[in-house]
Amino acid sequence: MSGPVARLLLWCVLLPIPLNVGMAALPDSVDFRLGPHQWEHRLLLVFASSEADARWADQREALRGEAEGVRERDLLLLTLRADGEQGRLQSGPEESARPLTTAAVRRLYDRFAVSPDAFRVVLVGKDGTEKRRAPEPVTARSLFDTIDAMPMRQREMREDNGPGR
After folding, report:
1. Cα separation, 165 vs 160, whole angstroms
2. Above 90 in pLDDT, residue 25?
3. Helix (H) or strand (E) holding 1
């Protein structure tokens, strides 16, 4: 067989191959890096050894219903589990989650020196530095109080409540 039909058949057979070779992550996985979020977002990272850790569920519950407060503070939520090196990124507690790549999960565990068998909640400020670390779940009020005491957040609140508002 030769000609256009043969070329079309060849393309149909070979085209899908590069899409599947070496795929280590889901197609819509986020290879999350801290740098692009500096000066744009605060980050709340929740590390757990597994989904079976009760503190994991307690932390999720502590943020439930707090979407407005999370949004006002430009906070992104990252949940990371050592079992299977899984992670996800959310722009709020009620927002849909996007999976993180395995490489991103490993980088975050390494960057924040969290043991795979530990539970940790880490707050990162817009300047990219760690602001708070807790070995137990934190309440939304406590988290918001920590953020609201930061100089950058104080300035944001003054600007939001400026003249004419």
Report:
1. 7
2. no
3. none
Q: What angle do CA 165, 39, 155 make, to 5 degrees?
A: 35
pTM of the model: 0.80
Class of domain 25-160: alpha beta
Q: Is the pLDDT of residue 134 over 80?
A: yes
Per-residue pLDDT of 75-133, as tens digits, reads 999 999 998 889 999 998 888 999 999 999 999 999 999 999 999 999 999 999 999 99
Amino acid, res. 33: R
Sign, CA torsion 63/105/109/91: negative
Q: How many residues does the chain have?
A: 165
Is the Cα dihedral 116, 50, 138, 44 positive or negative? Answer: positive
Per DSSP, the residues of 59-74 read HHHHHTT-HHHHHHTT
